[in-house]
Specification:
184 residues, mainly beta, 2 helices, elongated
């Protein structure tokens, strides 16, 4: 069952985001970043509930509760998805080589002063995934230093897929888990 759920989640992650013939300037509302852990040292794996947590059948607080985690109960968290409901604009203030493909070592873009990129989700330490002309890139050190990266107008929701010791799967938005931060 676990392999089926992970395979289904990864299949969804592999779906391309539809982009019109003309390059789309802004990312679509509800953009999904599958498998992303949105802060420094964030890791999926064995987590422990810090309090009682409802776990839903689907990624909605209105979805039926499939089980309830009790405080100090351990779960497996194989993956998650960060949904960008509203991206934030980052205005490039100087020429910069940036835009790494996931896992890539060389920047893909030569951005110039005045370019605008749209941050999708934080990755920690000022790094983030961003949208530029219909494609998603990972920021590098130079972009992390740009002003306005915090995105006070942004809205992202992190859904976690969890499995309890009975083998039941479900979704939660709760951030009340231990062992999520590998740095301590």
């Amino acid at each position: 069952m676990l392999s089926y759920v992970i395979a289904a989640a990864l299949a969804l992650a592999a779906k391309p985001v539809p982009v019109p013939a003309q390059t789309q300037e802004r990312p679509p509302a509800g953009y999904e970043s599958w498998g992303v852990c949105p802060f420094e040292c964030c890791t999926y794996g064995e987590w422990t509930a810090e309090e009682d947590i409802d776990v839903h059948a689907a990624r909605s607080e209105r979805a039926p509760v499939v089980f309830r985690l009790r405080q100090d109960e351990t779960v497996s968290a194989p993956t998650g998805v960060v949904v960008t409901e509203r991206a934030w604009a980052v205005h490039v203030d100087r020429p910069v080589r940036d835009g790494y493909s996931r896992g890539g070592k060389e920047p893909q873009l030569a951005l110039k002063r005045g370019d605008v990129v749209y941050a999708l989700t934080p990755l920690g330490e000022g790094f983030y995934l961003y949208w530029y002309h219909g494609k998603v890139y990972e920021s590098g050190l130079d972009m992390a230093a740009m002003p306005g990266v915090e995105g006070k107008d942004a809205k992202v929701v992190w859904w976690k897929l969890v499995r309890n010791t009975d083998g039941k799967f479900g979704w939660t938005r709760s951030d009340r888990f231990r062992n999520v931060d590998a740095c301590g």
